[in-house]
Amino acid sequence: MQYILGMNKRASDFTTPAGVGLVQKTLQILDLFQNDTPKWTQARIAESTGFPRSTVNRLVRFLTDRGYLAQADGQSHYSLGPSAIDLGRRASAQFDFRGICRPVLERLSVQTGETVILTSVVGTGNAVRCVDQIESTHEGLRVFEQVGTVFPLHTGASPKAVLATLPQDELENYLSRPLTELGTQQPIDKTALRKDIAKTVRRGYAVSVGETYVGVTGIGAPFFWSGHRPAGSLAVALPDHRASSKTIARIGAYLSEGAADITALLTGTTEPSPEETT
Q1: Helices 20-31 and 42-49 meet at what angle, rounded to 10?
Q2: Residues 176-188: pLDDT tens digits?
Q3: pTM for the complete prediction?
Q4: Which of 90, 95, 93, 97 shows the shortest CA–CA distance to 119?
Q5: Structural domains in the chain?
Q6: Per residue, what are the HEC states of 16-42?
Q7: Nearest Cα residue to 62 out of 119, 115, 23
């Protein structure tokens, strides 16, 4: 299958749309191309954005010529093209995920005094990986996680915080597979898991007791990429004897606030400080 890309044209051959408004419209079109909606026709783009068909046609042609969109021969739909893929690869290589999230982890460490864990969604979205942590400052019994450890979404607070945010079809697909407990490999009680997911949605954070390690309570809250796609979670792990219901609620509130701050950073919705607007 061949793709109409126009990549052999010189930069001088293109007429660049001028004005911030057109830049915003161009980005809005690119934002339509998500994992669950990878292909769009011009008609669907116009319907979804409300842009005039002439504007959509002009911007789609521009993006196709630049290689950010691709159109299969004889097909009316468009998908992201090689320039978009290359941009994503460069962004991924240069993106300092841990560095961006670290100030929030440090704040949570001060607020809770317990071990704070940062996870990111792995590959196809069926697991999370521990990518950073700050260990507890408590004397005596402390909890810590091995950076790099991967957990399935159905066990532990940090994974289940992500599980509860999946679109319904993806959630049902995940729950349809055989699921077992860590360590014992016993089948998961899916009825209980569904109830736990519902509680997580209502609270805004997940809670687990002894699911990953005996004697450990976990609390986790999810954060997102644009389009409300789960990116990972923040979690706090602490010994059961320090995990009163009041403590869990307090830490859950801290985590929810921290996760919202990371979502704002990842999606570019952070409000400018007063100094930046003067």
Answers
A1: 110
A2: 988 888 777 788 8
A3: 0.67
A4: 97
A5: 3-91 (1.10.10.10), 96-267 (3.30.450.40)
A6: CCCCHHHHHHHHHHHHCCECCECCEEH
A7: 23
